[in-house]
Amino acid sequence: MNIFRLTGDLSHLAAIIILLLKIWKTRSCAGISGKSQILFAIVFTTRYLDLLSSFISLYNTSMKVIYIGCAYATVYLIYMKFRATYDGNHDSFRVEFLVVPVGGLAVLINHDFSFLEILWTFSIYLESVAILPQLFMISKTGEAETITTHYLFCLGLYRALYIVNWIWRYYFEAFFDLIAIVAGVVQTILYCDFFYLYVTKVLKGKKLSLPA
Amino acid sequence: GFNINPKDEL
C-alpha cells in the first residue's frame, strides 16, 4: 500500500458516499444516471467475486464489501425508493453498446482464459467506460448540480491517483498490470474535459452549465 | 522479475 493508492481508494469512497447522501438528503436522484450506477454495481460484483476465494487483508475485504453494498444501495434508491424522481428520459445512453464490446474484449484480451479472470477483466474494461451514461446525461441536459460535479471530481481524482500509484509500484515494487493500466488511463482521459469545466466553473462558484 | 497482476488493488 502506498499513499497514492490509499488516497485514491478514499477518494473513490468519498465519491460513492457523496452520491448516496445527495440522493438521500434531497430525496431525489434528478440528474443522476441510473444506468451508470447499474454499470458500477456490475463492475464491483464481477470484480470482487474473489471475496469468496482469496483473502488479501482486512482493509481489502472491508473496502470491497462497502463498495458493493453502497453500489446496490444507490441502485435501490434510484430505481425503487426515489423512482419518481428518476429522469429516465434524459438517461438514454445505450448501454448495450458498452457492455457487448467490453464483454467481447474481455474474452479476447485477458491474462488467463478462466471464468474468474475473464469476469475480472470484464470489470476492469467496463469500469473504464461506466461513467459515459452519466457524462452523456449531463451533455444532454446541458447542466449538472454542483453536488453531482463534486461526485464526478472525486471519481476522476481516484482514477488519476491510481495512475500515480502504478508509476510508484512500477519503480518501487516491480509491479505492473498492463490491462489495468491501459483501461485506467482510458478512464482518466474520459474525465479530462470534465476536470477542465470543474476547475474553470465549479471551483469559481458557478454552476456547471454547458453552452447550448 | 516483474510481479504481474496479483489483484491486491480495489
UniProtKB/TrEMBL annotation, chain A:
Annotated signal sequence range: none
Primary localization: membrane
Membrane-crossing segments per the record: 65-82, 94-113, 119-138, 150-168, 174-199
Membrane topology per record: Multi-pass membrane protein
InterPro entries xrefs: ER_ret_rcpt (IPR000133)
Gene Ontology molecular functions: ER retention sequence binding
Locations listed in the record: Cytoplasmic vesicle, COPI-coated vesicle membrane; Endoplasmic reticulum membrane; Golgi apparatus membrane
GO BP field: protein retention in ER lumen; protein transport; vesicle-mediated transport
CC terms in the record's Gene Ontology section: COPI-coated vesicle membrane; endoplasmic reticulum membrane; Golgi membrane
Record-linked Pfam families: ER_lumen_recept (PF00810)
Keywords noted in UniProt: Cytoplasmic vesicle, Endoplasmic reticulum, ER-Golgi transport, Membrane, Protein transport, Receptor, Transmembrane, Transmembrane helix, Transport
Family (UniProt): Belongs to the ERD2 family.
Protein name: ER lumen protein-retaining receptor
Organism: Mola mola
